[in-house]
Amino acid sequence: MGMSAVVARGVSVSIGGARILDDVDLEARPGELLALVGPNGAGKSTLLGVISGDVALGSGTVEIAGRPLGSWTLKHLARERAVLLQQTAVSFPFTVQQVVEMGRAPWAGTALEADDDDAIADAVLRTDLARHLPRTVPSLSGGERARAALARILAQRTRILLLDEPTAALDIRHQEDVLRLARERADAGDAVIVVLHDLSLAAAFADRVCLLADGRVVADGPPATVFTEDLLSRVYDHPLEVLTHPSDGTLIVLPRRAGRASAASPSAPPSSPALEGTS
Ligand code: ADP
Ligand code: MG
To answer: What region holds the ABC transporter domain (predicted)?
Structure first.
C-alpha cells in the first residue's frame, strides 16, 4: 500500500473564539476521489484551507505526501498539490492564456518545464476553453471564469488536487466534464478531494464521501453507506429522499416535496385532463 497523499488528524480551528473545525480526521489516498460534503458553514472550505496551508491549524496535524505540512516550502508544496479556491478573484485583466500559464510557475527551472506546452494544451482542451484563450478573465461568464481557474490548476500537474466547489457556477455538461476529469485523475493515481453540494454528483463519481456538519465529521465512507435518508435529512435539516438509479444503481438524492408521492409508495395513475372538443 502506498502512503496517503493527505492525512489530517485531530484538526481543530477557532476563529475569533468560534470553533470552526473540531477534531477533524481526513485522509485521501493516491487513486482516490474523495467528496467533501455538508451544509453551508459546515467548515468544508476551512478544512481545505488547512490542508492547503492557507488556514492556520489550531491543533492537530496535517501531512502532505508523507511529510508534515509545515516542513514543505511553498515552492515545493506547489509541485505536490494544486488548490482551486471557492472564491477566485482575478482582478487584473489577464487573458485566459496567461492564467493557465501561471499554473506552470512551480515547475520553472525544473526538468518538467519541458512539459509546459503539453500541460497547458491539455488543461485548455479539458476545460473547453480553446476559443476563449485571448479573452480577459473579467470579460468571461461566471462559468467560463471557473473553468479558467480550473485549467490553471490542472496545468500545474500535481499528484494532489484540492477543489472547492469546482462545479458551483457550471452548467450540467461542464459539471459532468469536471467530475469525469477528477475521476480520470484519481484513476491515474492522483488523490482528489472535491467539495460538492450536489450529492447525486458526489454519489456518481466519488469513491468515498466525508460528511461534515458544524465543524465535525459526521460520517466518512462509500456513498452507499453515508447517503442514507435519515442521516442526510438530519444533517441538512430538510427531508430528503435517496433513490437508486434504475440502470446503474448510483444514488440520487432529492428533497422531499409536498404533493409528490414518495418513490417508495405506489403512485396513483396520472389524471389526464379531458380532451373535449379535440379529436
Ligand atoms: P463551508 O465551506 O462548509 O460552507 P466554511 O469553512 O467557509 O464553511 O465556514 C465555516 C464556518 O466558519 C462558517 O460559519 C463561517 O462563517 C466561519 N468562518 C470561516 N472563515 C471565517 C473567518 N475568517 N472569520 C470568521 N468566521 C469564519
Ligand atoms: Mg465553502
So the answer is: 6-239
Which domain does 177 fall in, by range? 1-80+158-226
User: Does 234 reside within a domain?
Assistant: yes
The three-state DSSP-derived secondary structure of the chain is CCCCCEEEEEEEEEECCEEEEEEEEEEECCCCEEEEECCCCCCHHHHHHHHHCCCCCCEEEEEECCEEHHHCCHHHHCCCEEEECCCCCCCCCCEHHHHHHHCCHHHCCCHHHHHHHHHHHHHHHHCCCHHHCCCEHHHCCHHHHHHHHHHHHHHCCCCEEEEECCCCCCCHHHHHHHHHHHHHHHHCCCEEEEECCCHHHHHHHCCEEEEEECCEEEEEECHHHHCCHHHHHHHCCCCEEEEECCCCCCEEEEECCCCCCCCCCCCCCCCCCCCCCCC
For the Cβ of 44 lying below 6 angstroms from any atom of ligand 1, the answer is yes
- CATH code for the domain of 73: 3.40.50.300
Using one digit for the tens of pLDDT, what is the confidence trace for 30-49? 999 999 999 999 999 999 99
- Domain boundary pick from 137, 154, 171: 154
Ligand in closest contact with the CA of 39: 1
Pick the residue whose CA is nearest to atom 7 on ligand 1. Answer: 45
Ligand 1, atom 14: nearest CA belongs to which residue? Answer: 41
Same domain, 62 and 148: no
Residue closest via CA to ligand 1's atom 18 equals 20
Note the pTM of the prediction, 2 decimals: 0.91
